[in-house]
Amino acid sequence: MKANPVLSLIAVAATGLWTGCETVPPGTDRGPHGTIPYHVAIEASEPDVKIHANGEYVGSAPMTLKIYGDKDGTFHDFGSYEYTVQAFPNKTNQYVQTRVFLTGKMFTPEDKIPPQIYFNMNQPPPAYPPGYYYYYPPPPYPYFYYHGYFGAPYYYGPRYYGRPPLHVTRENPRR
Q1: 149 found inside a domain
Q2: pLDDT of 37-71, one tens digit each?
Q3: 36-44/116-119 β-pairing
Q4: What residue spans of the chain are helical by DSSP H?
Q5: Cis peptide upstream of residue 62 (ω within 30 degrees of 0)
Q6: Is residue 9 a contact partner of residue 16, using CB atoms and an 8 Å limit?
């Protein structure tokens, strides 16, 4: 039995497409899990502000923080939903500043790694953190005890029941 040259060519092309190639810029260091390092400049309005990344002390501002991310410039999922960078003030009447970035764990959005982060230590924090939605508190105990509480009220939204309207023209009269 003869081999079909067209099928052989298609098989070779498909194998080449499926295997792909890994493109990393030349001279780039490699990190864990196939990541590459990104250098982020961290500055603050006051010098010698303590910087924490994911709860660990990494230095005082101004500084350069090495963050391992994916090749497309986004944060890598190392088992956490978010990557947090905090600046703790060293004077009174200043506030703790926090920047939270999503890592893309479990199909959540992922953020790009910024080239620099600036902390204004005199800016008060928001009433609620970004991405936090305030819901009503649970009802008092007797209502909860007898009826149960299933979370915030669910919005059903407008619904349309029935057949969709027809576009009436001369060629398509409504019957």
Answers
A1: no
A2: 999 999 999 999 999 999 999 999 999 999 999 99
A3: parallel
A4: 5-19, 141-147
A5: yes
A6: no
- Which residue range forms the structural domain that includes residue 26? 22-124
Q: Which residues are bridge partners to 69 per DSSP?
A: 36, 75
* Structural domains counted in the chain: 1
Indicate the DSSP class of residue 21: -
Q: What is the DSSP letter of 120?
A: -
Tokens of 148: 């149960």
pTM above 0.90, yes or no: no
The residues, ordered by sequence, that sit 6+ positions from 49 with a Cβ below 8 Å of its Cβ are 60, 61, 87, 88, 89, 90, 119, 121
Q: Contact 45/54 with Cβ under 8 angstroms?
A: no
- The pairing of strands 97-102 and 50-53 is unpaired
CA distance 68 to 70: 7
Q: What single-letter DSSP state applies at residue 49?
A: -
The answer to whether residue 38 sits within a structural domain is yes
- 6 within a domain of the structure (yes/no): no
Task: Retrieve residue 151's tokens.
Answer: 């979370």
**Tens of pLDDT along 97-155?**
999 898 988 888 899 999 999 999 999 877 766 655 555 555 555 544 545 545 555 55
Which residue from 78, 3, 1 is spatially nearest to 34, judged by alpha carbons?
78
CB 64 within 8 A of CB 43: no
